[in-house]
Specification:
The complex is a heterodimer of chains A (107) and B (122).
Chain A (H helix, E strand, L loop, with lengths): L2 E4 L2 E4 L5 E11 L3 E6 L6 E5 L3 E2 L7 E14 L9 E7 L5 E3 L3 E5 L1
Parallel strand pairs in A: 2-10
Antiparallel strand pairs in A: 1-3, 3-7, 4-5, 4-8, 5-6, 8-9, 8-10
Chain B lengths: L2 E5 L3 E2 L5 E8 L8 E8 L6 E7 L4 E3 L7 E6 L4 E6 L8 E9 L7 E4 L3 E5 L2
Classes of the chains: A mainly beta (107), B mainly beta (122).
Amino acid sequence: IQLTQSPSSLSASVGDRVTITCRASQGISSYLAWYQQKPGKAPKLLIYAASTLQSGVPSRFSGSGSGTDFTLTISSLQPEDFATYYCQQLNSYLLLTFGGGTKVEIK
Amino acid sequence: QITLKESGPTLVKPTQTLTLTCTFSGFSLSTSGVGVGWIRQPPGKALEWLALIYWNDDKRYSPSLKSRLTITKDTSKNQVVLTMTNMDPVDTATYYCAHSSLIGIVGSLDYWGQGTLVTVSS
């Protein structure tokens, strides 16, 4: 199963609403997660099971979707949200796959 | 408090075998549902999942790298070891280990090590 993220990069301003899409090459369960990665740092889990917010993650982050199409939404972009975001899925064979990433830059 | 830390060589020669160790604390790899995975990231590129071992010694590998990877665990030492054979310069990357669980976070990776940069060069 391939995961395709779009866009691969975007420019946005503080306060903007940002949506990132992750499309699977075939229908997957809701075992989809989203991560945030800043330069030189390990990824940080934001969302798991497609829509469950990880403990400690601000509520401006939300996830949705099912089947083949999933989205990560940042309701009001903050300065600390400029980073690269990855989706990841776990399939029925317990194999993991990551998407190609979406870099969110300052406009 | 869960922590993980990767250790191993920073430089390997082409064709050599890489051995990386993940030493963790704050959880047990004998607890039902728990797993430890390895993920790598070439400089400036995306994350790539490599392997994962579960509490019951079930092992899963990336299909594209399966022939080169072996993952093992030592529950008494709280360690997971990944070996990758026949290293090539394209394997230059930061290698991370991470905690996972099939319960609760359902297959995601919620705690990560700091990563270790491995360079493949003669």
